[in-house]
Amino acid sequence: MTLPVTIDDVRAAAEAIRGEVIRTPLVAAPALSAATGAEIFLKLETMQATGSFKERGALTKLKSLETAQRRAGVIAMSAGNHAQGVAYHAQRLGIPATIVMPEGTPFTKVERTEAYGARVVLRGEGLVEARRAAEEIAAAENLVLIHPYDDPLIIAGQGTIGLELVEDQPELDAVIVPIGGGGVIAGTAIGAKALRPEIEIIGVEAALYPSMHHAIRGRPPEPGGQTIAEGIAVKEPGRLTRAIIEALVADIVLVDEARIEAAIETLLVQQKLVAEGAGAAPLAALLADPGRYSGRRIALVLCGGNIDARLLASILMRGLVRAGRMVRLRVEISDQPGLLARVASVIGQKGGNIVEVYHQRLFQDVPVKLAELDVVIETRNPRHVGEIVGALEAAGFPTRLLSETALG
What we know:
Elements: H1 7-17, E1 26-28, H2 30-36, E2 39-44, H3 54-63, H4 67-72, E3 74-77, H5 81-93, E4 97-101, H6 107-115, E5 119-122, H7 127-141, E6 144-146, H8 152-168, E7 174-178, H9 183-195, E8 200-206, H10 211-215, H11 239-248, E9 251-255, H12 257-271, H13 277-288, E10 297-302, H14 309-322, E11 326-334, H15 339-349, E12 353-360, E13 370-378, H16 382-394, E14 399-401
Parallel strand pairs: 2-10, 3-4, 3-6, 4-5, 7-8, 7-10, 8-9
Antiparallel strand pairs: 1-2, 11-13, 11-14, 12-13
Helix pairs in contact: 1-3, 1-8, 3-5, 3-8, 8-9, 9-11, 12-13, 12-14
């Protein structure tokens, strides 16, 4: 079968962008290796100037343009990483860039894209409408449309990741790569398997957006929803990328939101690396089925690190709750002076750190001479939580745990 992109195309892309994008490191992940029984390596595309692998394909496409096309300018449809990759390198090369984004795109993303010198046009409720608008503007203004994934040059540019992976670790057994439209996994598969044919390429999609998984199995697309991995929340997989994936990718696995969230937290806590949901998806797939990879050399492509700071903070706090290191207790007390101080004293003597206290008198279904305290506490671990609850009970304060933790 003749594929739309060849290893020669990938090598040409590597030469074209050499020195203009970061040749990202492939680093060992000892903590993850110990936890999974595999030898894990991380490909840090998070280190690119715009925080994502998208620069590789965008620059490859931009450098292929003729003089007249560069003068007229380019247009892209994206709500995130592709937008910034195109805008950043178009500005470097002196090419006018227009980016079409859905109307609900967070202002921070709009602002970052505009900071790279791009004209931002907000159209439609989602990416489908934004794509149509981009096509209309491209035709009206004679602009070159830079597709986020379904373009041979884009795929070839992303394929430079595959070359670097095998050059840096020639004995890799498998690579786990996120799938949205399929550009990065298609390119990576071409580059990696040309150098090491026996390497296994495994794709991972968010369970809410199994577009490529379903397409290659002849199943209809599913509606989607709110996902933490918005970078791979693609409803329509690429036509070119699908052909490559069917030929070269061994499997596509689906991961749910809880696993992606846990993977983001694990990367930050254990490896000190910030990844967005799409970037953490390969680790989510690994942790969902560690036995499949045990004893093998596995590379995870961390495709991007552009995660909202508030979302990241929320993930970390929720992780503390899951681990039993941040809990909310409801403590029943008499509505008398001094009892709040006694409760605080018991918790403090047991080494708990009180973060917040809510003193409920008026709106709880309790007798009028009683009150309830909702106390948020930092603890060491679930056993420590049990010790604090036991001490409060022993002191005469009925107590129950409100937050979900690993206590059970």
